[in-house]
Amino acid sequence: MTVLLLIVSVPSLKMPPPSAVPAALTALFALMVLSLIVSVPARQRARELAATPAFAHAQRQRKKVEALFAELKNQIGLRRLRLRRMKFVREQFCLAAAAQHIKRLVRFLSKVPSPNVAATA
Fold first, then answer.
1. Residue 66 and residue 58: Cα distance in Å, rounded?
2. Which of 45, 50, 61, 92 shows its CA 20 to 30 Å from the CA of 71?
3. What's the rounded Cα separation, in Å, for the pair 93 and 49?
4. Cα–Cα distance measured from residue 25 to residue 99, given in angstroms and rounded to the nearest whole number
5. Is 9 helix (H, G, I), strand (E, B) or coil?
6. In angstroms, rounded to a whole number, what is the distance separating the alpha carbons of residues 120 and 116?
């Protein structure tokens, strides 16, 4: 585990007069220390995994699911639930999901089938 220390000077911080503050605290007012844990092997492994075809496929699948939940929140109105208690929340979610599935089914069934090349010959 590598620890990266960044020491940043803070000129906008007003220091009290040196006589009012002990010498140990004077340095604290002048410099702010930010320590970050940098795990280079883990980050490198994450970058390698992000470059794989399986990751790209998973991201495409995730995009579809996220779009469905976004539609539930924004268009169907599940951003804020109207009922309390888990039983009622589950019921409201199932009704909203059923409405969403019916909309998708209508879109799927209303598609005009493309003419078959073999049937016209």
1. 12
2. 50
3. 34
4. 63
5. strand
6. 7
